[in-house]
Amino acid sequence: MPFNDPPMASSYLRQIADQVASMGGDVDAWLGRQGLQAAQLEDASFQLSFPVFRLLLLDALELTREPSLGLLIGERMRAHTHGILGYAAINSGTLRQALDVTRRYFRLRTTMLDTAIDLQGDYLRLQLVECLPLGDIARPVLEAVLLAIKNILDFIARGSAPCQLVSFHCAAPDDMALARELFQCEVRYGQDWTGMLLPAAALDIPLKVGDAASFEQALQICQRELDKLVTPYSTAARVRKLMLEQRTAFPSLALTARMLHLTPRTLHRRLLAEHSSYQQILDEVRHMLALEYLRGGQTSVQEISYALGYTDIANFRRAFKRWEGVPPTAWQAA
Fold first, then answer.
1. What is the pLDDT along the chain (334 residues), one digit of tens a residue?
2. Which of 160, 216, 270, 305 matches a 20 to 30 Å C-alpha distance to 178?
3. CA 277, CA 273: separation in Å to the nearest integer?
4. CATH architecture assignment, domain 8-212
5. Which residue ranges does the record assign to the HTH araC/xylS-type domain (predicted)?
6. Which residues have C-beta within 8 Å of that of residue 227, sequence separation ≥ 6?
């Protein structure tokens, strides 16, 4: 069942097109196969659906024959690439402030992913969370976005907060050298999370490039832009975000409605208008998290079952077979 998300801004399609062109690809033909034209990439208001974005990225991978295309795209992205959010980040007073503004306004740049931040001892973990199953484009998308984030953090920190570890839930590529070279730290694939570890001690060190007045101005613009994103499609996305933030103890329909300042009846009606439902979103989130846990290889099927709220492991196995056509153990072994 497809996710009912708003259309995606084409913010980063320009970088993909530039990378395809730099590798000798015919960008006009590449775009044309999806009924698009190069001029549309210069239109800031141009939007495209996730299915079209997915086909463009898969086509770019085939056209360039470069399995690490995501890393090359991410390396192209610098602070100015990220619009007003990038401007806010580079004018932050501290790394903590930069990370907070990134977390709050991340969806201005993409609706495919969200960020989660938590402290783990001496480290801060910045995690990327899929807002919809990326499937066969997970690796290039996650590599590009994570490298882009690291590049901007490196720029503003100027060496005061070196990344300690980069983690991906995707399977390891045949050639790990490029990832290590670009991230300039330890890189691990096949983990149960995607993101990076930063030294917590550096969070409140004043940043040399920040400007308080510019930051406040950028923050106001970010909030105005975020307010514009409230669309008739957003209720399902908001429910999904709440579930992903919980990850285990999923809120009931009644609690979800209360958290969104709605009555259960109103929430049900709004989701129905979007051709969605609470149960459908719960099923989709469970599906996505089940795949994430299985890819990580650190959690047993029984533990995954309980983590996703199934009281009976047999019910989880039946649900997984409905999603993927095979039992979870068979999917993991494939």
1. 344 455 565 667 888 999 999 999 999 999 999 999 998 887 766 778 888 899 999 999 999 999 999 999 999 887 777 878 888 998 999 999 999 999 888 888 887 888 888 888 899 999 998 887 888 999 999 999 999 999 999 988 888 888 999 999 999 998 899 999 999 999 999 998 999 999 999 999 999 888 899 899 888 988 887 876 655 457 888 888 888 776 667 889 999 999 888 899 999 998 988 778 999 999 988 888 888 788 877 788 988 898 888 888 999 999 999 998 899 999 888 7
2. 160
3. 9
4. Alpha-Beta Complex (3.90)
5. 237-334
6. none
Sequence ranges of the domains in the chain: 8-212, 234-333
> Do β-strands 113-120 and 123-130 pair in parallel, antiparallel, or remain unpaired?
antiparallel
Q: Which distant-in-sequence residues (6+ apart) come within 8 Å of 220 by Cβ? A: none
Task: Give which of 193, 207, 216, 187 is closest to 296, Cα–Cα.
Answer: 193
Q: Do domains 8-212 and 234-333 have the same CATH topology?
A: no
What DSSP line would sit under 260-295, residue for residue?
Answer: TT--HHHHHHHHHHTT--HHHHHHHHHHHHHHHHHH
Residues 218 and 174: their CA atoms lie apart, in Å, by 41
Q: Which pTM value belongs to this model?
A: 0.70
